[in-house]
Write a sequence for this structure.
């Protein structure tokens, strides 16, 4: 795409861009709600009137329902205003599904607030050309159609903003349309070059417009990333001769960074690094009895050494932390820090600001609860007793860690804090630094999860962890890719330090491979918690948590040894992240398409990105076929809507399995055999034939 004056070429990419022209006036206040040509249900849109979201490099589908009475043809434009104030115009095309929906895909590059509105108009040339082709061929109204065409072309030639050569041609065509010139009339009505001229610069009437809407484009990491979680205190921890454990530090944890980067991850998420309280400290496996040397849960934040702005002395100093952040950056990793707004009974807040907690009738402070779980080592925050005070304190804390080099925060249980607070905090921080990203760890009701995303959270944990069957995954992945993708970005964590699902507990190594392949290809953001690559699948009886949970003790793992013995998933994770880097279709959210198979345990989907957006000039299409039953071999036929990537139904094309290197010739119906114990998933690159 050629650059326009005043707009960087990277600001947007759109094959449907046309020359800029004056637009219709936006609806005036107090005017009728329905414009002359109705424009209904424009997307992107967000419930509650919040701005829609995209990330830099995301291909955003803009769509609107538009129609008019009768048979006259209409056209629809999208008018975009970049954060720099430059306008561009883009032609929408009607979908062929009978819904009167018009759409256009545009890649947005520049960060900041974009404005957009839809404009509909009567397409006078298209209406005339269609009528002339039909009527003149039938010998109906031949002189009338010639006269109407001459008048239309003359009117177009009079538009001063048209190129001089184009105006000259239009005048010549108008003169040729003598009354009764049937052959000339049909020739001009079907002339491809003339149609292109009027598609780029139509003759319009009855112009209508929606009100302007805003869309926030955030940095790419807000929507694309491979996350890896670890506990710094476990990395480099060692057991001493007397049986006690010496904690890992930021310096020892930094030694693990090259291996994490080598697996292809680009975000390193670490749990809270603050001093841990001793009152009611939890022992191993969340017990109420502690043994000497038990480190306690890092979520019981606060002790004599300080609170949320302090660093646990076992880990090192503030200088050590900054060095750790720099070391991560040197490996291509960005550090994400846990923001857990709660306090241990030993937190300085408890004595300095008791109003920030809930006091019970007996004078005690209420513990945190998530029935049936009870957290005796944690006090939840009360945001209503002194909202100004607690708001200001949290803002200070976030600013403090931003100043230490942290630009990503994984927020613990945001659904247990007021929604209004998050809207205020995220807006305030992003106004100061638009690069700061917040991930909501909100495993809660759908309305609450979506509301958190709408008010500002850039990413969200999701129900993916518990969606394991073919039907569940089809419904879930379609929903997050299309229904809520204007504002909610799922981070498909396969496990967490709190969650070890039954699927992983009982699915064996195949389950770990299957879930990793789906998470890495179905959405542009996914994550794993350390130990996943070692198939850690033993749960505490009756729970969905790892036994000997790392929240309450140090973990000792032989990363290199397990990989050398072939007992590590690291090679697969490394390959999956390579595939994600090599295929831009996998770095988009809204391009997910579910397909079909004859087996209720075989999931089929594709991710397609048009050549206009890949940067290589070639389409990028990935097909994933997964056996979601980790206990069986499945043979079935898969059925593909190949028109999604521009291949007519019935035509053949070549595919390459990016995991095994195998090649096949496929069409819209294909036999597959997926052995859960060896190759449970195909990740196929489509290669069209010339």
């Amino acid at each position: 795409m050629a650059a326009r004056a005043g707009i960087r070429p990277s600001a947007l990419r759109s094959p449907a861009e046309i020359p800029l022209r004056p637009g219709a006036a936006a609806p005036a206040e107090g005017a009728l709600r329905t414009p002359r040509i109705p424009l209904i249900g424009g997307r992107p849109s967000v419930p509650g009137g919040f701005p829609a979201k995209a990330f830099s490099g995301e291909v955003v589908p803009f769509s609107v329902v538009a129609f008019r009475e009768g048979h006259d043809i209409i056209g629809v434009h999208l008018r975009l205003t970049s954060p720099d104030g430059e306008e561009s115009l883009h032609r929408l095309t009607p979908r062929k599904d009978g819904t009167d929906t018009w759409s256009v895909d545009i890649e947005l590059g520049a960060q900041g607030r974009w404005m957009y509105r839809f404009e509909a108009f009567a397409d006078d040339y298209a209406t005339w050309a269609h009528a002339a082709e039909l009527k003149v061929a039938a010998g109906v109204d031949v002189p009338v159609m010639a006269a109407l065409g001459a008048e239309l072309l003359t009117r177009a030639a009079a538009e001063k903003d048209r190129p001089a050569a184009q105006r000259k041609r239009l005048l010549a065509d108008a003169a040729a349309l003598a009354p009764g010139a049937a052959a000339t009339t049909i020739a001009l009505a079907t002339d491809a070059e003339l149609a292109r001229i009027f598609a780029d610069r139509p003759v319009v009437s009855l112009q209508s417009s929606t009100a302007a809407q805003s869309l926030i484009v955030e940095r790419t990491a807000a929507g694309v990333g491979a996350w890896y979680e670890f506990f710094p205190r476990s990395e480099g921890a060692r057991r001493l001769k007397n049986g006690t454990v010496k904690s890992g530090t930021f310096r020892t944890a930094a030694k693990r960074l090259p291996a994490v980067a080598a697996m292809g991850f680009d975000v390193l998420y670490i749990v809270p690094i603050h001093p841990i309280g001793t009152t009611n400290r939890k022992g191993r496996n969340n017990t109420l009895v502690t043994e000497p040397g038990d480190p306690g849960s890092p979520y019981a934040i606060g002790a004599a050494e300080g609170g949320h702005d302090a660093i646990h002395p076992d880990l090192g100093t503030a200088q050590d932390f900054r060095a750790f952040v720099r070391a991560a950056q040197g490996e291509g990793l960005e550090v994400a820090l846990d923001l857990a707004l709660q306090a241990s009974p030993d937190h300085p807040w408890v004595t300095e600001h008791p109003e920030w907690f809930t006091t019970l009738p007996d004078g005690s402070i209420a513990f945190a609860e998530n029935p049936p779980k009870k957290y005796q080592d944690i006090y939840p925050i009360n945001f209503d007793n002194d909202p100004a005070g607690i708001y200001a304190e949290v803002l200070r804390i976030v600013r403090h860690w931003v100043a230490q080099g942290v630009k990503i925060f994984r927020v613990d249980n945001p659904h247990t804090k007021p929604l209004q607070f998050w809207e205020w905090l995220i807006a305030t921080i992003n106004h100061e630094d638009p690069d700061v990203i917040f991930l909501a760890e909100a495993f809660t009701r759908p309305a609450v999860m979506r509301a958190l995303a709408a008010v500002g959270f850039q990413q969200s944990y999701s129900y993916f962890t518990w969606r394991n069957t073919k039907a569940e995954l089809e419904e879930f992945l379609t929903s997050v890719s299309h229904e809520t993708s204007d504002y909610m970005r799922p981070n498909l964590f396969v496990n967490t330090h709190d969650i070890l699902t039954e699927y992983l507990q009982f699915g064996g190594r195949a389950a770990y491979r299957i879930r990793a392949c789906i998470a890495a290809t179905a959405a542009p953001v996914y994550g794993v918690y350390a130990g996943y690559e070692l198939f850690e699948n033993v749960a505490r009886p009756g729970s969905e948590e790892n036994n000997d949970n790392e929240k309450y003790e140090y973990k000792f793992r032989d990363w290199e040894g397990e990989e050398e013995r072939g007992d590590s998933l690291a090679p697969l994770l490394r390959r999956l992240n390579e595939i994600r880097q090599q295929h831009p279709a996998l770095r988009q959210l809204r391009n997910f398409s579910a397909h079909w198979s004859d087996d209720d345990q075989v999931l089929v989907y594709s991710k397609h990105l048009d050549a206009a957006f890949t940067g290589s000039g070639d389409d990028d299409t990935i097909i994933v076929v997964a056996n979601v039953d980790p206990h069986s071999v499945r043979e079935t036929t898969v059925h593909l809507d190949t028109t999604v990537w521009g291949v007519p139904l019935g035509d053949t094309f070549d595919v390459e399995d990016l995991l095994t290197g195998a090649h096949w010739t496929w069409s819209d119906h294909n036999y597959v055999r997926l052995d859960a114990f060896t190759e449970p998933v195909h990740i196929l690159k489509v290669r069209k034939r010339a």
